[in-house]
Amino acid sequence: MATFVLVPGAWLGAWAWDDTARALRERGHTALPLTLTGLGEHVDGGGPRTDLDTHIADITGFVERHDLRDVTLVAHSYAAAPVTGAAGRLGNRLERVVYVDSAPFTAGMCMLDLMPPQAADQLRHQVAASGDGWRLPMPPFEVLASSSSLDGLDEAKREVLRARATPQPFGTYTQRLAGPAEPVPGADRVLVACHDFMGLLDAGVPMLASLSMPPWRRFDLPTGHWPMLSAPTQLADVLDTAVS
Predict the structure, then answer these.
(1) Rounded Cα–Cα distance for residues 122 and 153 (Å)
(2) Span 3-243: which CATH code?
(3) Spatial CB neighbours of 3, under 8 Å, sequence gap ≥ 6
(4) What residue stretches are annotated with the AB hydrolase-1 domain (predicted)?
């Protein structure tokens, strides 16, 4: 059986993994959802200095503090950035890294690099105008839908997501990832692609081409960008298969 450390994406806390974690435990696995600094129940711990290094330290500290071994580290969305950083620091504690509707970062990369300059500038303006200069509130769903699939999120699930989301410390979007930015040699590498990402991979986007080839193993999950909310049991099935 596997030991999963489940890291949520932007604006989310460990709560987002509740149903998937429960399903993994029912299959005999250890499932440990993690809330990053400044988010979820740790919202009061965030501040202007909370950045990508803070979240990398959250992940590595969690694994070391609980003396976890043979860890399957799971990143959803934004969490790809700190998980990539942590994977390069965990040494032989890491058995596998799984990216859920996300992809590994390269050294020198930051979250704002993933969006057009105009969109990045709009976020900076939003943070300056309504986020005290360091917090990024979750955008309205109509804005999120322009870049991320909402498939599978009915009104009830959207209400939960909206009610429990917390502003993202913006330093986690602006700080660039420092090396090492690769899992330890021999660590298993898994990609779980949802609707939009499936399309990018199938279209043969050059910067993503390597993710469909060994040593990567790809699993497709036909749902939207938040599968732990839209298809939690199916996501657990995929993760269970990936470690079997």
Answers:
(1) 26
(2) 3.40.50.1820
(3) 29, 30, 32, 68, 69, 70, 71, 72
(4) 4-238
